[in-house]
Amino acid sequence: MPKNTINSVSVVGLGYVGLPTAALLTRAGYKVRGIDVNQDIIDCLNRGECPLGEKEVAEIVVEALHSGNFEASLTPTTADAFVICVPTPVRGDKSPDLSMVRAAIRATAPVVQRGALVILESTSPIGTTRNVIAAELAAAGLDPEKDVDVCYCPERVFPGATVREILNNDRVVGGLTQGAAERAKLFYESFCNGVPVTTTAENAEYSKLMENTFRDVNIALANVFARIAEGAGVDVQEVIMLANRHPRVNVHTPGPGVGGHCIPVDPWFLIDAAPAASRLLLDSRNINDGQAEWLLNRAEASKLPRGGKVAILGAAYRGDLDDARESPTENLLSALEERGYKWSLHDPFVTKINLHGGAEVSVHSELSVVLRDADAAFIMTDHSAYRALSVEAFEVMKERLIIDGRRMLHKNSFLEAGFTVIGTGAPTSESIEGLDVEQKAAHLKVVSSNS
Ligand code: SAJ
User: Fold this and answer.
1) Could you tell me the domains of the chain?
2) Does residue 232's CB lie within 6 angstroms of at least one atom of ligand 1?
3) Using one digit for the tens of pLDDT, what is the confidence trace for 382-400?
4) Dihedral angle, C-alpha 199, 202, 203, 205, nearest 10 °
5) What is the Cα–Cα distance from 239 to 244, expressed in whole angstroms?
6) Ligand 1 centre and the CA of 435: distance in Å?
7) In angstroms, what CA-CA distances link 164 with 24, 54, 208, 433?
8) Residue 341 CB contacts under 8 Å (≥ 6 apart), including other chains
9) 242-265, pLDDT tens digit by residue?
């Protein structure tokens, strides 16, 4: 039975994956050095504090700092294993930007010694481990198949449940050689409970891209189903519930678009590599990115006056997170700016968001400030706090128009109070104002049987 011979680990990149990974490695008994190019992160850690917000992450990071076995630094030093967890965004033209992976391995290669294990965890185009990591190690004088063990092992964490997911998810461990994969398998077994499955580096790279692309395409399909339902006058929620009773069907949830730093980005790596074969992927990206504008078009087709004042509820890309990266709200803001609207934005957790042009705008934490005198309110994020909102909160609006991108509200009470509610995948329910008592009762009966 081979033994895990690793005692010291350098984790390069102390973000939302690298930092909790470094803390869990420390807890498992390794001597860990965390490396980052950001002086603020290093200073924060050296004060004994965690620069990330997630509670369980902060707890294990502070525990690691107190153990005396974890230190943070700008400079890499030698170690038995190196784990690289840096961002891999796309550029403005959607081509992969691997500059941070390249910079990380260039800075690290000079301290990598013969016998070391080098693992890349960043989501990357197929071939990156061989063409960037191995190539830079070779340039530093090491044979990447003989002198060192080089692997690709993608992170798979779901923000909000980071620690649980690092500990429990199965891992795909792709080696440049079989020996490298076997060695990395032992390493992951030493601090994770999930099963590490060995394969080649290229298979591992592709599997990660496949996972997130699968989700993007399926969400796009759900959004198409929603658009069709709106036109057909049926409620997509009810139809999805019916279809999902089939044992081999799992239609996803339609919404105002797809955010986060992974799902809207990763399909581009495949589209870039094989554009002719990836038309479905490109269409899906466009559908998901177009959802916010689709909702705006529906609001305009109802009673939103062009150039009016719009209240936006939610900057985060997913409910109860403080993370606004690639949030669908950015797409709504761009469309509103383009069409000359005034807008203001609320979120219980996010304080700032970037417009597509790069400018940073601030987010209000007081809902009534945002809703006051608005011609329409768009609900963009499924924060729990929004689910509980009642009609009273919206009384300060000028016009009674709500675009419920996430189907969060108890629609009937809003209809009874004279609001028009436009929900993703629901036929537009015009206000019941003006109907007689019997017509109102009949309308509400239809709506409640659909919700
Ligand atoms: N969304 C929908 N409908 C759905 C599901 C999600 O509109 O049915 C939206 C969400 O509201 C959100 C976006 O999609 O805006 C992002 O999706 P998500 O919350 O499902 O995923 P992420 O980006 O937080 O994390 C994903 C996960 N990947 C998969 O589930 C395949 C996670 O496991 C990955 O580790 C992570 O990407 C990553 O780092 O790659």
Assistant:
1) 8-199 (3.40.50.720), 255-424 (3.40.50.720)
2) no
3) 999 999 999 999 999 999 9
4) 110
5) 8
6) 42
7) 11, 12, 19, 49
8) 306, 307, 308, 309, 310
9) 999 999 999 999 999 999 999 999
Contact 415, 443 (CB under 8 A): yes
Out of 21, 123, 170, 212, give the residue to mutate to test ligand 1, the one with the largest number of ligand atoms within 8 Å of its CB. 212
- Mean pLDDT, rounded, of the chain: 94
192: annotated active-site residue? no
Q: Is 262 a catalytic residue?
A: yes
Ligand 1 contacts CB of residue 258 (under 6 A): yes
Cα–Cα distance, 149 to 301 (Å, whole number): 60
Exactly one of 31, 185, 208, 411 is catalytic; name it: 208
The pLDDT assigned to 359 comes to: 86
pLDDT at 175 > cutoff 60 = yes
pLDDT at 451: 46
Ligand 1 atom closest to the CA of 215, numbered from 1: 31
pLDDT, position 437: 65
**CB distance 215 to ligand 1 below 6 Å:** yes
| Alpha carbon 422 to its chain's center | 26
pLDDT of residue 444: 57
